[in-house]
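Researcher: We're teaching a course module on how sequence relates to structure. For the next exercise, students receive a sequence and then see the predicted structure as tokens, so they can try to spot secondary structure elements on their own. Here is the exercise chain.
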Amino acid sequence: MLTRFSVFGGGKRRFSDLNEQEILALAISSEEEDSRIYAAYAAKLRDTYPATAAVFDGMADEEDEHRRWLIKTYQRRFGDFVIPIRREHVSDFYTRRPVWLVENLSIERVRQEAADMERQAQEFYVAAAGRSTDAETRKLLGDLAAAEAGHERAADNLEQKHLGHGERETEDLASRRQFVLTWVQPGLAGLMDGSVSTLAPIFATAFATQNPWTTFLIGLSASVGAGISMGFTEAAHDDGKLSGRGSPWKRGIASGLMTAIGGLGHALPYLIPSFWTATTIALIVVFLELWAIVWIQNRYMETPFLRAAFQVVLGGSLVLAAGILIGGS
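Model: And here is the predicted structure for the students to work with:
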């Protein structure tokens, strides 16, 4: 019988082909994995979001309790040997996101992942109960479906216990602040540097040579060079431990990539052979870039819109004018 599973025999099983013993064994392994996932979430979030970590600790305990219930039921019906079948052995069974990805998820997204886990588990037990013809197994699976639905209510109770008195709002605010410090702030700095600092050399070259290909090469080299420089500078000057700005490599990637994008935006139009067509499109792109910077400053940095518009648009316009005048002289 063991050779029917992928770990021993190769091919995956379909859920519809599993018998009642296999379904129960699958439920045991799934509950074990979910308990470990919640415990891992709690461990990773404990330092930064202790209240939410306490919620996941409670959910891990809930899953572990149901695992023990499942094992007792399995032992009573089928003996002590639990068939080694897991989610990855069943082709049409739901999967779980790798736990290490929680490091790259917002706190709200982690909570949504937990809600999705409970919903998928409930749907599994409902589907299994509907397919079962054995009265005892059908009742068992129905009870498990009800238990998974109860997990959501239990999670709500745990949230009220651990995330009351403003703790959730505090954690959400901390999560947003961390996102701004790690991604938005360095990315915005890079976009501003790439968009504004490359205006003068690109448009000076354009009007001095009126050669689109030469202008594109100058713009490409300036954008890529600035991106590399900004990325390494951001990553090297602050490790984020004291400032709380997060991973230096994340900040370096955000800054370097947005710097390159900012410059390439008005360099790429010069791939068009017609000088005036390319220049017109490049000017439109510059207009869009500057207003995108204004929007980001207003949306994430809480800079008043008019002040951001005045600073960015005026500054960019002056640099653009300088490049055109120098190139056309």
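Model: If you want an answer key for the exercise: Residues 167-197 form the longest helix (31 residues). Confidence is low (pLDDT under 50) at residues 1-9.
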